[in-house]
Amino acid sequence: MIEPIGLSALWYTLTGICSGLLGAILGLGGGIIVVPVMMILLGVPAHFAVAASLVGVVATSTSSSAGYMKRGLPLVRVGLTLELTTILGAIAGSIAAGFLSENVIHVLFSLLLLYTAWNMWRGRKIREAEDNPDLVKVTPLALGGSAVAGCISGSLGVGGGVVKVPVLNMILGAPMHRSTSTSTFMMGLTAAVGCIAFYMRGELLLSLAAPLVLGVLIRAR
């Protein structure tokens, strides 16, 4: 059982701050940075790292979405509709994570990192689209893609934006600024649902999540 105090809690807070800063610079969600740092550098067991990261994703989404909402950027109707399948995916992913060994989670996360790095190297494909929210209609393909995003989020502790943003932009034709803000809005709902299974298994520790969230909130100020 992990009960970080003193310097350990400080490291988790710094992880939250740095993940937010690097995520903003690289255009990534914080979870994709938090999880490997906690597992590899701080020695946190995989399931506990994923659970804490999901709480961090909720905090990141909440703090970032507040600004987006004031500017009227997220496609709320579209996001909530896509969340119907995203949440199902998050439930499935978080439950499945309980049956995965540490090594399997490490391998899956490594593959996700490689995919993300490859996307950054080749450059993100962007579909130019008219900025008219009324033209964005949810399709079955988008619902399926959102379910995949939810499964990735629930099992690996990330926001799932690596899938959600392309779904919104490439499949539904939402402009990129709408896609990223809507994805951020959705992440909090997805991660909150994903936390439930980890909490029920006793893998969601306040002693890990609290300092991490503190770091996220400090960075957001």
In short:
The chain has 221 residues and is mostly helical. The protein is 76% helix and 0% strand.
Q: Describe it for me?
A:
It is a single chain. The chain has 221 residues and is mostly helical. The chain has one domain (7-220). 76% of the residues lie in helices and 0% in strands. The protein is built from 9 helices and no strands. The protein has helices spanning 7-26, 31-41, 46-70, 76-97, 102-122, 140-156, 161-171, 176-200, 206-220. The longest helix is centred in the first third of the chain and has 25 residues, at 46-70. The protein starts with 6 loop residues before the first helix and ends with a helix. It is a multi-pass membrane protein. One of its GO terms (cellular component) is membrane. Keywords: Membrane, Transmembrane, Transmembrane helix.
Features:
221 residues; mainly alpha; disordered N terminus
What overall geometry do the principal axes of the alpha carbons give?
globular
Helix content: over 70%
Class based on secondary structure composition and strand pairing: mainly alpha
Number of helices: 9
For the largest beta-sheet, the strand count, sense and barrel status come to:
none
Terminal Cα span: 32 Å
β-strand percent reads under 5%
Q: What is the mean predicted local confidence, pLDDT?
A: 88
Number of structural units classed as domains: 1
Rg of Cα set: 16 Å
Task: Detail the poorly predicted runs.
Answer: 1-5
Number of strands: 0
Order of helices and strands: HHHHHHHHH
